[in-house]
Amino acid sequence: MAQHILTVLKADDVATRHIWLRSLPPEALLRADTAEPMIADAVTAVEAAPAAA
User: Cα(26)–Cα(29) distance, rounded to whole angstroms?
Assistant: First the structure.
């Protein structure tokens, strides 16, 4: 379903990015360790998303 939504949004020229939680380091994710680069990148992406505002 998420992939379908991303496809629809891209068709409307909306920039999208799918963040796969399973690709993030589990320990850092559980600790909410924003010093971990992959976690920090995901947080920054979500904060920058227009829909998150």
Answer: 5
Contact 33, 47 (CB under 8 A): no
pTM: 0.72
CA quadruple 4, 26, 37, 32: dihedral sign: positive
The DSSP output letter for 52 is G
Q: Are 34 and 40 in contact, with CB atoms under 8 Å apart?
A: yes
Who's near 34: CB < 8 A, 6+ residues apart? 40, 43
Which residue bears the tokens 């589990």? Answer: 26
Residue 53 DSSP one-character state: -
Over the stretch 29-41, which tens digit does the pLDDT of each residue have? Answer: 999 999 999 999 9
